[in-house]
Specification:
The chain is mostly helical. It is 61% helix and 2% strand. The strands form two sheets. It has a two-stranded parallel sheet. A two-stranded antiparallel sheet has the order 2-3. A hairpin with a 2-residue loop joins strand 2 and strand 3.
């Protein structure tokens, strides 16, 4: 059970200053629980989880087409829907973690569902009962899978999607929570946690993208899914063994989502009340909240401040007082969420650009010369590993070299502010699409020079490594933007909604994937009208991916400008009792 608000604490020295407890609600000592030892163990667990998830996702299209005999279009649709659902489910998991079950319990339940899904998936790929007969090599006919075979496979897949939806936001917030926010030393190193978190999951991504894909293609799908299953079982065992090391945040006495909604309802009920009349009538603290979490008032979104004004009508509706009168801290929490939602909207185009590396970049590579040395060839999809390698190389450089150097210049504990970090990443993503557009123009030019426009099956005499710069730029952008977004949506969310904050960050890429599909459908329809050339024709030598990339450059630049406007107006969280908190400057 997650820690509750009851404190049955023995006499402890060096008590955690942020009020964290053990599973029984007793205050804990920083010497015994939490800290980097617990955070690093949790990072290790997440390495295994990302390894497992991507072992399923990376090659799912091949499994559906080669084993389940689905058409390329049907398989692509099924993969896109599954990925989209999986990307949005963290919002559900984050809600359960912050409002109902707590992080620790959510991680345990999600891990068990994860194991169940992976076991079922291993059985679906191993037992002949769940696998349709192979295609007839003479007639080239492929037996269709039965309803039971398809049903069992997709139940397995969606169990994995459901499990990662609860696991991802909960375990990242839980790992960060092991570092005591009220301790200046640990708070200073909290930014490093997010850097090393991404370093860790990149290891999982690389292993799944190289080792497991090879095993699935060359050894067997059953063993290719069995290895991730064993990895998840080991990770779950390691997580459980670390229980005595963890510290836990106290679950709020009131649903934090309800607290936010109460602010908007109370403010709307007092739409005609003057804010100047507020005076000393604000409530000071919430029941169940310590002084260390009290937020100072800000001058932004002043219309919400009306929720703190006490009027005579409030006393006539005592039964609904919580929906009529809110505290300053409660109102400031609502403002935090509003600010982050604006940042979320402005980053959606980054999510759209992010989706290109696993789709059109791969299709480009499949038409090019993929030779590495002699007859050794690299798969087009394997080029994505260069994004991961770039992250693995640059994260230590960023954390150990860039941050100390920038800190000595700016005086900011993070080197640069979170919003600056995200902005740099978004700018680099724009540059990456410029490079992608220019490279595609070069590919089309070579195809034309060699008379290959109407010969899509012939390899274009242009090395696939022309694509390398855009993949490397994607990796650099991730080091800045992705890590920055993770920390921003964790750090600037209300303390009781941090799993939801991580889930909101993750949804940028889920919504970005949906928007990318929607944008492609619109462009496909418009470009094909009047007998025009479809920008996404099956024959890439006749298509115009370069036009699409230039469009993404323009849209990304537009959203970057919108982001800069919102970032310039962003006010960082102000906590009354956190005198040591460094003031961020956007």
């Amino acid at each position: 059970m997650e820690a509750t608000s009851s404190y049955e604490s023995p006499l402890l020295t060096n008590i955690a200053e942020d009020g964290c407890t053990d599973l029984h609600g007793r205050l804990v000592s920083r010497k015994l629980r939490g800290g980097w030892k617990a955070s690093l163990l949790i990072i290790g667990v997440e390495v295994a989880e990302r390894f497992c998830y991507n072992s399923v996702y990376n090659n799912l299209l091949s499994y559906l087409t080669n084993v389940m005999h689905q058409s390329a279009a049907t398989a692509a649709k099924n993969v896109n829907v599954w990925y989209g659902v999986a990307s949005m489910l963290p919002l559900v998991g984050g809600y359960l973690s912050d409002c109902c079950l707590g992080q620790y319990t959510t991680i345990i339940l999600s891990s068990l569902v994860y194991l169940l899904g992976l076991i079922c998936l291993t059985l679906a790929a191993s037992l002949t009962f769940f696998i349709p007969p192979p295609c007839d090599k003479t007639s080239f006919s492929c037996p269709s899978p039965t309803v039971y075979q398809v049903g069992f496979l997709f139940i397995s897949l969606y169990l994995v999607a459901l499990a990662q939806g609860g696991h991802r936001p909960s375990i990242q917030a839980f790992g960060a929570d092991q570092l005591d926010e009220r301790d200046p030393t640990e708070r200073k190193s909290k930014s490093s946690f997010f850097n090393w978190w991404n370093f860790g999951i990149s290891i999982g991504l690389l292993l799944s993208g190289v080792v497991i894909v090879y095993i699935q293609e060359n050894v067997g799908w059953g063993i290719g899914f069995a290895i991730p299953t064993v990895a998840m079982a080991i990770a779950f065992s390691v997580f459980m063994c670390g229980t005595i090391m963890y510290q836990h945040k106290i679950l709020p006495s009131t649903n934090p989502i309800i607290r936010i909604l109460q602010v908007f309802v109370a403010a709307s009920l007092k739409w005609n009340v003057s804010i100047d009349s507020q005076g000393e009538q604000n409530l000071s603290v919430d029941q169940g909240f310590s002084e260390t979490t009290k937020l100072l008032p800000t001058d932004q979104f002043r219309f919400l401040d009306k929720a703190t004004i006490e009027i005579n009508l409030d006393h006539e509706n005592r039964t609904n007082l919580d929906w009529r009168l809110c505290t300053v801290t409660q109102v400031e929490e609502a403002k935090l969420v509003l600010r982050l939602l604006l940042i979320w909207v402005s980053c959606l185009m980054y999510g759209v650009v992010f989706a290109q590396s696993s789709t059109f970049f791969t299709k480009q590579g499949s038409t090019m010369d993929r030779r590495v040395i002699g007859n050794l060839k690299i798969a087009g999809a394997s080029m994505q590993n260069f994004i991961t390698i770039t992250v693995l190389v640059l994260v230590p450089v960023y954390d150990q070299i860039f941050v100390p150097l920038a800190r000595s210049i700016t005086g900011n504990k993070r080197g640069i502010t979170l919003l600056q970090r995200i902005g740099v990443g978004m700018f680099i993503s724009v540059i990456s699409m410029v490079v992608a557009a220019v490279t595609e123009m070069k590919r089309l030019q070579v195809a034309k020079e060699y008379g290959l426009i109407d010969m899509p099956q012939v390899t274009i005499p242009l090395s696939i490594f022309w694509l390398l710069p855009q993949y490397i730029l994607f990796g650099i952008a991730d080091v800045f933007a992705v890590v920055g977004l993770q920390e921003l949506f964790y750090d600037q969310m209300p303390e009781t909604m941090r799993s939801l904050g991580i889930a909101l960050y993750l949804s940028i890429f889920g919504v970005g994937s949906f928007l990318s599909s929607f944008l492609i459908c619109i462009i496909e329809e418009l470009s094909s009208r009047g007998g025009g050339q479809n920008w996404f024709a099956d024959n890439l030598n006749k298509a115009h991916l370069d036009y699409y990339y230039w469009l993404l450059v323009a849209l990304s630049a537009l959203f970057l400008c919108i982001y800069l406007i919102f970032a310039n107006c962003f006010i960082y969280k102000k906590e009354e009792s956190n005198v040591y908190r460094d003031e961020e400057i956007s």
